[in-house]
Amino acid sequence: MVVVLYFARSAELAGVRSETVSVPQRITSLQLWDEIVKRRSRLAVLRDQVVFAVRQEYVLLGDQLLVLQSGDEVAIIPPISGG
Amino acid sequence: MNETEEEPKDFIKLTQAKLSVDEVSVLVTSPCCGAISLFIGTTRDNFNGKKVVHLEYEAYTPMAEAEIKKICRDVRKKWPAIKHVAVHHRLGLVPVTEVSVIIAVSSPHRIESLNAVSYCIDTLKATVPIWKKEMYEEEYSWKENKECFWTNMEK
After folding, report:
1. Which chain B residues are Cβ-neighbours of A79 within 8 angstroms?
2. What does the further note read (chain B) (predicted)?
3. B99-107 β-sheet, strand order
């Protein structure tokens, strides 16, 4: 069980700020995205704009294999606009 | 006659409270430094012909602080003469003309602090997980920095 955090536009589309999601321990970042979109389908429009932050490190959506521990934070990161 | 040299420090703050340029200047002031350079980001009242009412900022706070810390570390590698670095960013509602971000750097001579401040704001806009929503009269828009590092990558 990982904790998925939603920010900015992704939080508006998901309708929540955070939730726990059950995923396999070993999963690619793209597979993880697909799992999340299954539950929150309105996120699909963000597919080409977002990246993840897994344990507070950026991960692009793709083939990168993630090894997730229970309680890990996975954040959906839409294009940033600080400053 | 030799006084103990102060340790270089990074002052990082994300807050809903109004930011203070005086406070930030004092934080980076150091007897061994002859220069303090500042960048102050403020809310502009217009975008593409639309009137901006205010900005609203949100952040993935622990990661934003960690990414700012990385920027401070990089700045010290690039300009070892730098003494103190302060990055204060406001969260929540920021009305027009109010300050949303202050970056301050002190160094013995001006060239390092001027360059470091410029690098800090450019890199913050590219890498720190903070988002701003621009509120117009009838609608709003989630802004996207052109510097955002992954939107600049070849797909």
Report:
1. 144-145, 148, 150-151
2. This protein is produced by a bicistronic gene which also produces the large subunit (MOCS2A).
3. B10-15, B85-90, B99-107, B35-42
